[in-house]
Amino acid sequence: MKQLVLTLAVLAAGSAPVWAAEQTVTLDIPGMTCGVCPITVHKALMAVPGVKDVRVDEAKKDAAVTFDDSKTSVQALIRATTDAGYPSTVSH
């Protein structure tokens, strides 16, 4: 019985990365008003560990961010844009 529990624990620990999922969220960033704003937002989001891709749309004033949810969160992405001077919210 003890060996079974140990085996299950090892299997569970080894399968943790399977629980991680790549997600994409769109952030509304109304403060982007010039051509430099998307560059700043892109750099801020790409600096967040776990972010895989960022697509900033200046015309729509939003950013689509693909990230590993085991390494970061939507709250961290919002904090990154806000700290860069561009407060954001999740697009609905």
Characteristics of this structure?
Alpha-Beta Plaits; 4 strands; elongated; single chain; 92 residues; alpha+beta
Number of helices: 4
Q: Which stretches are poorly predicted, pLDDT < 50 over at least 5 residues?
A: 4-8
Number of domains: 1
The major beta sheet can be summarized as:
4 strands, antiparallel
From the 3D structure, determine the CATH topology. Answer: Alpha-Beta Plaits
* Range of helix content: 40-55%
As laid out across the biggest beta sheet, the strand order is: 2-3-1-4
Mean pLDDT: 87
Query: How large is the radius of gyration?
Result: 18 Å
Given helix and strand content, the structural type is alpha+beta
Using the coordinates above, name the CATH class. Answer: Alpha Beta
The CA-CA distance between the termini, in Å, is 50 Å
CATH architecture verdict: 2-Layer Sandwich
Strand elements, count: 4
The sequence of SSEs as H and E is: HHEHEEHE
Dominant shape: elongated
Strand content: 25-35%
